[in-house]
Specification:
mainly alpha, 3-stranded antiparallel beta sheet, 6 helices
Length: about 140
């Protein structure tokens, strides 16, 4: 194992997790971070089975089912039968869910603006470049 790559991976995960936990303190957010993460995953992957969401979120199926029920009651997701297996449910974002996710991201981004504005042009460019590298890395996801 390449220890330098491993350390970079740990640093990336730790820094991004801290940033997400820290950002809500700077801006008003109505959704929990867990709900926001589920909406983002559905936005990225499209309609998804509850079992696949549980696996991806590393939690139990009953936990995801409870989250989905709350999101469904709020009108943020729809649940439909899986055309491949009518016993399973497919969960998809509603237009309102897309809008709520957009507003969450906007709010979190707004909360970071005062901190980002204190960085030099060079640091801001480095962050933009790093975000672009992360986007490319995400295209490698299986």
């Amino acid at each position: 194992m390449d220890e330098e790559l491993h350390a970079l991976g740990e640093d990336l995960i730790s820094a991004s997790a801290r940033m997400v936990r820290w950002a809500p303190n700077a801006a008003p957010v109505t959704l929990s971070l867990a709900a926001g993460r589920l909406l983002a995953r559905l936005n990225d992957k499209g309609p998804t089975r509850i079992s696949e969401l549980a696996l991806a979120e590393r939690c139990s199926q009953p936990t995801i089912t409870n989250h989905v029920k709350r999101l469904e009651a709020a009108g943020l997701v729809d649940r439909t039968a899986d055309p491949r297996d009518a016993r399973a449910w497919m969960i998809a974002l509603t237009p309102r869910g897309h809008e709520e996710l957009r507003m969450l991201r906007h709010s979190l981004g707004t909360g970071l603006e005062p901190y980002l504005s204190q960085l030099s042009r060079r640091d801001l460019k480095a962050l933009r470049d790093g975000v672009e590298v992360m986007r490319r890395l995400m295209t490698l996801e299986a």
